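Hello again, I could really use a second opinion on something today. I've been staring at a protein lately and its backbone has me curious. You're getting the sequence in one-letter code plus the fold written as tokens. I'd be grateful if you could look everything over and explain what you see. No rush at all, and the record is pasted right below:
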Amino acid sequence: MLDGNGVNATAVTAASGFDFGSLALALIAGAIRIGTPFLFVSLGECVTEKAGRVNLGLEGILVCGAMTGYAVSLMSGSPWIGVLGAGIAGMLLGAMHGLVCSLPRVNDIAFGIALMLFGSGLAFYLGKPFIQPQAPMLPALSFGAWSANEHVRHVLQINGLFFLGLALAGLLQWGLTSTRWGLVLRLVGDHAETARALGYKLTPIRVAATAAGGFLAAVGGAYLSLYYPGSWNEGLSSGQGLMAVALVIFARWQPWRCLLAALLFGAAGALGPALQSLGVTSGYYLFNAAPYVLTLSIMVITCRPDRTVAGAPGELSLTR
């Protein structure tokens, strides 16, 4: 409602009682909760691109992993077995991407788009019987027992997969810089001819990298169906697989930066719900578009023709 001076009185009232502490807590919790699938998908794509491949089919792998994880959890009674099943399904799709893209005159960008459609369509077709049943969910670890505030206890419930992703980011950062396999992977992604001259076979290394990337992306999908939001339906993913490609570019192909970027994207995704929980409903859908605006901004800033993408593997299709 507007007062005599044309000011929105409702907005002024909401702003006067605005709780920045609650907003910060909600954004931190949301960054972890929403950013976890971004973390796994981006780490998977980072490994894939370090070997000189781009996998735009991660969206299809993510959705297929979500469906497989939910189905296996329902049939086995164990959500952790569901996560493993999702990872295996993603590994198979990732290996298929690596094998097909190793064939002559096959473009990894084009096949990635085909894989995205194939993985999503396969998940939608095979997942129809699992839309209604309730599968066992992944448990959460509670870090808010110290607080008497129920809201604080709720937002400080963190899934164990986040800590697994945290450890994985550190392990990959160390492995890529300090181990022989990390050196070989980077060599294949940066200078294929040099790697071939040293006796390394490019195809097995790249297939292994895309398979590992598919495994991690599918684990991110299992997180969506088995924890947050915790159900299987055809609209489960909101483009996390595609956004992960931009996230890896933003992270400059460094696993520890993928962690920071995933938390940033997660906080952007949590902005709308956090503001709504505090009574700020004006522009709700605009705030919900924050992750997509962030993705577009990153692509515009980092992928201009006159700008060198620092840290990009030399054999990537997007840098050649």
Observations:
- The first helix runs from residue 9 to 16.
